[in-house]
Amino acid sequence: MAVNETYSYGNFMGQILTGVHKNQFSNSEIIGSCFAHENAPDTEVFPSDIANVTFIRCNLDNVKIPAGATLEKCTNLRIKVFDGVDCIVDAQDKKIDTRKHFSSISFWRDL
């Protein structure tokens, strides 16, 4: 599968890409990019009809993963802020854990 040159190794944090044609994503590998959204779990970022996409070492926190997409060594946490503290939440947005002591540098190094 070809590396997606447009969407690999980039910072797309907070962007909504649902209006981008599916061919910009389908049948490709997206490597090392950030698509995370703050305080909004399950944000639809990608076109719903993309197919055969593999995300590798990407930050997909709070992103709704398209059906059929594959994640390899990515993050896809559901995070909301409660009383000024980032918290990992379940499907009902109830706190599971805090990220107060979370170190993204050590996390990515350990992947």
Descriptive notes:
This protein is mainly beta. The protein has one domain (about 1-110). Helices cover about 5% and strands about 25% of the residues. The protein has 1 helix and 7 strands; from the N terminus they run E-E-E-E-E-E-E-H. The chain has one helix spanning about 105-110, and strands spanning about 1-5, 30, 55, 70, 80, 85-90, 95-100. The protein has a 4-stranded parallel β-sheet, with no helix packed on it. The protein has a 3-stranded antiparallel β-sheet with strand order 5-6-7, with no helix packed on it. A hairpin with a 2-residue loop joins strand 5 and strand 6 (about 85-90).
N-to-C terminal Cα separation, in Å?
A: 22 Å
SS content category: mainly beta
Order of helices and strands: EEEEEEEH
Task: Specify Rg, calculated over alpha carbons.
Answer: 14 Å
Task: From the structure above, extract its key features.
111 residues; mainly beta; 6% helix; elongated; disordered C terminus
Task: Set down the secondary structure blueprint.
Layout: E1 2-3, E2 28-31, E3 53-56, E4 70-72, E5 79-82, E6 85-89, E7 95-98, H1 104-110
Parallel strand pairs: 1-2, 2-3, 3-4
Antiparallel strand pairs: 5-6, 6-7
